[in-house]
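Ligand-bound model needed. shikimate-3-phosphate.
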Amino acid sequence: MPPGRPARPGLMTMAREVRRCPSLAGVITPPGDKSISHRAAILNSLAEGRARLTNFSPGGDCRSTLNCLRAIGVGIEQLSADPSAIEVTGVGRRGFVEAADVLDAGNSGTTMRLMTGLLAAQPFLSIITGDSSLRSRPMGRLILPLRLMGSKIWGRGRDTLAPLAIKGQELRGVTYSLPVPSAQIKSAILIAAIFATQGKTTIQEPSKSRDHTERMLQAMGVDLNADDSFVSISPLRSPPVALDLVIPGDISSAAYWMVLGAAHPSARIEIKGVGINPTRTGVIDALRAMGASLRVVRERASGNEPVADIVVESSRLTGTTIAGDVIPRLIDEIPALAVAASVAGGPTVIADAAELRVKETDRIALMARELSRFGVAVEEKPDGMVIQGGAALHGALCSSHGDHRLAMSLGIAGALADGATLIEDAEVADISYPDFWQHLEMLRAS
Ligand code: S3P
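Prediction:
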């Protein structure tokens, strides 16, 4: 995959200037969790009944999921002027209808993979595509297990790339070992398994990826067993029950403030209502290992998910090693952690993270390239990078390359750097965090 491909051709790119923040203070409420929002919409669409979802992610990725679901007959209403409060009217397992057109997953890997799990079992034809970034991401890893369940799916590049054509079939359960941990593939198989008419489904993973699908299905009354290495589900005796949810704040969005607060010499930031599911909290562990002053307070539950507030303060950071089983627990936060590593004393080694090369962009190549513009010494490795640390960042002209997590990581680098930083295509933050730039200004102004 070429590292610098334009992810969203045709959209006008806008550059944003970010200047060093002399001090940072304030309270941030991050948007609803993107992963949980996708699942809440999809799983409630196949349940029977209505579900009210509040604090639903306002980002472009979850809009893509809602649009795909509407196109196959699911009723989705906005409950008020606030677009993050919606009602999903489930159609049950037999109520979906063929879409009149190609389904568009936009920039969202989760939309494409979870929707394909659902479409694989419907008695009609579906074609699903996405933007140029998504059309270059691996789909063979999705097609293979779904075919073992009896589905008929084809894709470009000898069935490895989207667009995908899906001719829904009656499915059977499967026993499958994921070659790399992936919550998207695990969830696609689990969703397909909800429709399987015979045979138990068991999925093994080399290390545990995020388990939001498992938790949500259990809360919807589905008989599902899971531990750290496997998850299994039998053909359903009764349909999943619709589930009202208050979606926890997104820890992947909170991560930018955790890094910025810890790395900045004069900062105190409180982040409210953050999901702290243990399969997602690797960023807290990594920052603490680097010496960050980070407190997790007022722990509580929202549905089947744990939530807390997080308080972060200026800290003297030191380099660390981020590798092994923690990687799936912080994979999306590595670009932000690379910024923390840039200013930390001593080197940071990031390894076992080759999956970063097949995200919205090649995040290893591009973070190494963009951070070096700020004066950071970064050595790219096939499965990660080594960041020398101790850099006095200087403002840079840099680009998100159409990747939301790069845009926001470069934004916090700019807030730490001397002088002005200009970030091309910064508005792509909208994919997961539409208010990101406003929140950065809020912290600066407080
Ligand atoms: C996600 C799973 C992860 C993550 C992605 C969201 C999910 O991807 O990187 O941003 O919601 O299931 P993989 O399943 O490819 O590891």
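Residues 35, 110, 182-184, 187, 209-210, 331-332, 355 surround shikimate-3-phosphate (CB under 6 Å).
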